[in-house]
């Protein structure tokens, strides 16, 4: 791990330490029933954050391959959560098996092998065409379009989109080779934006953005949290190939994509009749509840860098 | 000794792999994991059902709970026999033999231990089970003190349907319902229908982990 990266993780740990201290004080002072539930959930979230940060720090320290494997596992768990609450049929089994056993390993292998052209089209072209073929061979036509589309959506969001985060490591940027810092930038801005929107929403939230889709999202949270996260992103310009203004723009793009991603996935989740994607991460819900904004922000960030800064 | 150690290791491996792929968490909805003598009866959709149900029980209960498995399938070679008898501690029954097929089950119940049975008798690629066969009724009649616990295994027909080579990683849940008993003078068909319903009522929302808002 580079000295810069150690400093950055040190900063994150300091931030979490402050959060843990606040959580501890709140757990001693808040007395009301509803307040207690919020504080308990807050503390569960902070505890899970320590765990997640530790996992990322270890992966980053081991380098590219371990980080790619980590994201492959994240995709695996997200796809599992997605398909577990999606009504598929026994006839879809081959397509689902192909999604897990063929396309997850292949997509992440292409990143490890730095085969960027095929990485970009594997799922939108090859999987898109193959999955309905595997389903149609079973001869069941009822809900055919819905069944195919559900699996295609699941694979696009949980594998294709999320894989753009570790794919930042293979981007060729003239005059810049610290690609891990770009991945750090992306994850930090997305997650800080989520956390700050939650905090601003809890403190000042009044007007709901989309009450039916995601009742916890408020304009006050979005604007306060989003702008603060963008400002912090701008403040991190020195770890990127961007100028401070460019860094602010990139952070704003990440925040915006992350927000709409959270909104879209919330609607998907609700259309499937669930409140959380799973129970894997205490306080947060499932892995997909943490990765929803990343799934939209990662491809946007990847392609903006590739277009404006790539070789 | 060594066989037991190997069986223990294989058990942990199989359970760990099953958890990684299909989860298989327990949801105790109508009763708790109490150490009382029970017959767990469940819908049957895949070869993973037995493993999921065993893995869902706490270790202490697992030791005294025996899944019932078909001898023609699980006894077909030394390896599957080893897995059935030593790893899963199963009781093998002959299907369509001249001997009373329930005899090995009665032996287990007489010794005070518990059973896991799949009263449909065969696997089925549907969310809801086929009608139950009469074995459950005979055991309920002859062992009135044993608790009958309905279990609904959610998602297994999707995760590992009949004819598939590999299980797909879809999270499965073992739902444990409220125990039922054979009523005084209740006839066989009525009891079996009621037992069937006790499993089916858990199908609604059985796979979800969150509460719909």
Automatic annotation (TrEMBL), chain A:
GO MF terms held by the record: nucleotidyltransferase activity
Presence of keyword Transmembrane: yes
Which superkingdom, per the lineage?
A: Bacteria
Q: Name one GO cellular component term.
A: plasma membrane
Signal peptide as annotated in the record: none
Give a Pfam family name.
Answer: CTP_transf_1
Task: Print the keywords alphabetically.
Answer: Membrane, Nucleotidyltransferase, Transferase, Transmembrane, Transmembrane helix
- Where does the sequence pass through the membrane? 51-74, 118-139, 151-174, 180-200, 221-239, 245-268
Gene Ontology biological-process entries: peptidoglycan-based cell wall biogenesis
**What is this protein identified as?**
Phosphatidate cytidylyltransferase
From TrEMBL, chain B:
One Gene Ontology BP term is:
phosphatidic acid biosynthetic process
Highest taxon in the source lineage? Bacteria
List the Pfam families. Answer: Acyltransferase
Specify whether rRNA processing is a keyword of the entry: no
**Which SMART domains does the protein's record reference?**
PlsC
Instruction: Provide this UniProt record's keywords sorted from A to Z.
Output: Acyltransferase, Transferase
SUPFAM superfamilies listed in its UniProt record = Glycerol-3-phosphate (1)-acyltransferase (SSF69593)
Gene Ontology molecular function: 1-acylglycerol-3-phosphate O-acyltransferase activity
Q: Where is the Phospholipid/glycerol acyltransferase domain?
A: 38-156
Q: Which residues form a coiled coil?
A: none
User: Could you tell me which InterPro entries the record lists for this protein?
Assistant: Plipid/glycerol_acylTrfase
Q: Which pathway is this protein assigned to?
A: Lipid metabolism
The UniProt entry, under PANTHER family, shows: 1-ACYL-SN-GLYCEROL-3-PHOSPHATE ACYLTRANSFERASE (PTHR10434:SF11)
- Protein name per UniProt: 1-acyl-sn-glycerol-3-phosphate acyltransferase
């Amino acid at each position: 791990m580079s000295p810069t990266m150690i400093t950055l993780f040190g900063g994150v740990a300091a931030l979490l330490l402050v959060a843990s201290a606040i959580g501890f004080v709140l757990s001693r002072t808040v007395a009301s029933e509803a307040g207690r539930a919020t504080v308990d959930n807050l503390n569960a979230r902070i505890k899970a954050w320590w765990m997640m940060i530790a996992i990322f720090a270890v992966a980053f320290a081991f380098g590219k391959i371990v980080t790619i494997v980590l994201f492959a596992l994240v995709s695996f768990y997200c796809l599992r959560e997605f398909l577990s609450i999606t009504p598929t049929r026994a006839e879809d089994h081959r397509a689902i098996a192909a999604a897990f056993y063929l396309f997850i390993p292949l997509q992440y292998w292409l990143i490890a092998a730095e085969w960027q052209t095929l990485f970009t089209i594997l799922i939108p072209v090859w999987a898109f065409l193959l999955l309905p073929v595997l389903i149609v061979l079973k001869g069941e036509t009822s809900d055919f379009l819905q069944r195919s589309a559900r699996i295609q959506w699941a694979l696009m969001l949980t594998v294709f989109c999320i894989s753009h985060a570790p794919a930042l490591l293979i981007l060729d940027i003239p005059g810049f080779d610290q690609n891990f810092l770009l991945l750090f930038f992306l994850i930090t801005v997305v997650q800080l934006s989520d956390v700050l929107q939650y905090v601003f929403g809890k403190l000042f939230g009044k007007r709901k953005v989309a009450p039916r889709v995601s009742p916890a999202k408020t304009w006050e949270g979005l604007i306060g949290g989003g702008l603060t996260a963008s400002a912090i992103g701008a403040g991190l310009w020195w770890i990127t190939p961007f100028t401070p203004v460019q860094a602010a723009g990139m952070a704003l793009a990440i925040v915006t994509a992350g927000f709409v991603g959270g909104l879209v996935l919330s609607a998907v989740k609700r259309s499937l009749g669930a409140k959380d994607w799973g129970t894997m991460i205490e306080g947060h819900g499932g892995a997909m509840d943490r990765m929803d904004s990343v799934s939209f922000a990662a491809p946007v960030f990847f392609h903006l860098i590739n277009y404006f800064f790539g070789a | 000794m060594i066989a037991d150690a190997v069986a223990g290791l294989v058990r942990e491996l199989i359970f760990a792999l099953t958890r990684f792929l299909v989860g298989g968490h327990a949801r105790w909805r109508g009763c708790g994991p109490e150490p009382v003598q029970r017959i767990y009866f469940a819908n049957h959709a895949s070869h993973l059902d037995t493993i999921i149900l065993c893995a869902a029980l706490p270790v202490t209960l697992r030791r005294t709970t025996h899944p019932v498995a078909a001898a023609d399938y699980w006894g077909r070679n030394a390896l599957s026999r080893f897995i059935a008898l030593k790893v899963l501690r199963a009781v093998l029954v002959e299907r369509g033999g001249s001997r009373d097929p329930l005899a090995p089950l009665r032996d287990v119940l007489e010794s005070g231990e518990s059973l896991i049975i799949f009263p449909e008798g065969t696997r089925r690629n549907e969310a809801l089970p086929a009608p139950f066969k009469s074995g459950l009724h005979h055991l309920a009649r002859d062992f009135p003190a044993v608790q009958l616990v309905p279990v609904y295994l959610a998602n297994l027909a999707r995760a590992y349907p009949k004819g598939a080579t590999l299980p797909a990683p879809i999270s499965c849940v073992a739902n444990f319902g409220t125990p039922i008993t054979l009523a005084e003078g209740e006839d066989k068909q009525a009891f079996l229908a009621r037992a069937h319903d006790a499993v089916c009522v858990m199908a609604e929302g059985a796979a979800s982990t969150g509460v719909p808002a």
